[in-house]
Design brief:
By secondary structure, this protein is α/β, with parallel strands linked by helices. Helix content is 27%, strand content 19%. The strands form 2 sheets. It has a 5-stranded parallel sheet with strand order 3-2-4-1-5, with helices on both faces. The protein has a 5-stranded mixed sheet with strand order 6-7-10-8-9, sandwiched between helices.
């Protein structure tokens, strides 16, 4: 049988893709992180499905659940918050499944940064202002960052910077980016994007630490920094330009 790694999106159930919904509805086993996946999403599971909260489980325990289900001929819906392609920790699970000979596939989902940009009502790539989006985090107690991927170094490239898993270190984020972007650069923090208790903070880079502390935001948030957040005077995109050739 198959393990389906499913992008569960940023939280809102109606942001699940149709494919994700159908896979969850058909899987007799569902693994999810209770700290990130809302309970109402589990209502999609079929009656009698085995649901397993992996929030406090080790990698070995999680993989053992999937292998056990496979050997019993059961498909598994493995929910990953956001999109499996970004900061989902599925790579090591896939590697283990390959070793065990367990087939898997991946269903994409709405990433948290896209939900955050939607909450802000902004495009992260604006003509002549920012055409590059850097998705990153900072090193903390988690896995160390690779060499040459320090935030200060990445900030030198310009464009729009999006940080996951970093709001609890907001002061370090500001210290690392301020030399390149300036303290008055537009910045935002979106916590629990797409959910009923969503929190949106807008301001300057240097003002974000105080705003985050006052809002009591400690996790499940995305930090976005860049001029695209406040850009108003920029040329129209060539895509819809009247002067663009549209012949065959």
């Amino acid at each position: 049988m198959t393990v389906h790694f499913i992008g569960a999106g940023p939280g809102a159930v109606d942001l699940l893709t149709l494919r994700a919904r159908d896979l969850i509805a058909a899987a007799p086993v569902c693994l999810y992180a209770g700290s990130l996946v809302p309970p109402e999403m589990l209502e999609i599971c079929p009656p009698g499905a085995r649901t397993v909260d992996t929030a406090l489980m080790t990698l070995d325990e999680i993989v053992a659940e999937m292998v056990r289900a496979h050997r019993h001929g059961l498909d598994v819906a493995r929910l990953a918050s956001g999109d499996p392609a970004v900061f989902s920790a599925v790579a090591e699970q896939m590697r283990r499944l390959e070793t065990e000979g367990v087939p898997y596939d991946v269903c994409p989902g709405v990433p948290a940064y896209a939900a955050a940009a939607a909450a802000l009502g902004r495009e992260l790539t604006v003509p002549t202002v920012a055409q590059t989006v850097t998705l990153t985090r900072i090193a903390a107690r988690a896995t160390p960052m690779p060499e040459h991927e320090g935030l200060a170094q990445l900030g030198n490239a310009g464009g729009t910077v999006v940080l996951h898993l970093a709001v609890h270190r907001i002061d370090e984020v500001v210290d690392a980016l301020a030399p390149s972007y300036g303290g008055d650069c537009p910045a935002a923090v979106v916590a629990h994007a797409s959910r009923a208790h969503e929190v949106v903070l807008r301001g300057t880079l240097e003002a974000m630490p105080k705003a985050v502390r006052e809002a009591g935001i400690e996790r499940t948030a995305v930090i976005i920094v860049g001029e695209a957040l406040a850009a108003r005077h920029f040329p129209d995109s060539h895509l819809y330009s009247a002067g663009r050739w549209r012949g065959p």
